[in-house]
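Lab channel / #folding
Pinned by the channel admin:
"Please post every new chain as: sequence first, then the structure tokens as a reply. Keep commentary short and put observations after the output so the thread stays searchable."

First post following the new format, from NK:
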Amino acid sequence: MNRIFKLYDQAVAIFSNCKLWNLSLLFTRIVLAGIFWRSGRTKVDEGSWFSISDNTYFLFQEEYKGVPLPTDFAAVMATVSEHVFPILLVLGLFTRLSAFALLGMTMVIQIFVYPEAWWQVHSLWVAMALVLVSRGGGSISLDAPLVRRRAA
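Reply from TO:
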């Protein structure tokens, strides 16, 4: 039995390795960013960098009308958020702030737009965002030198 516990402890030590943890944070940042980036790209005219499509405004007037914000404002804010925060996440710059913003966005979508999507989709987004809010971007991020500089 002691041998089993020893093997378990060794496995925990390997998987708790700081490098592996930082790679996990990087992967989590990229995955969460990818979800929102792809959604943001559907909100702009094809071939443009950032021209919000008429279809986006229509969606916010019709399908997303439960969001308690003016529709034009909500369309612009969602589109901007789905472009800016994913870029910051991939860079690992202001990771906690970016993840918190996407967490808030997820909760708005969950509560006001697609309340039936919790277990299939939104719970996973929330889990990833909470990991990043609580742990930050890790050492493979632009946040890392900022944190070191502030500590000095």
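NK: The radius of gyration is 19 Å.
TO: also worth noting, DSSP finds seven helices and no strands in the chain.
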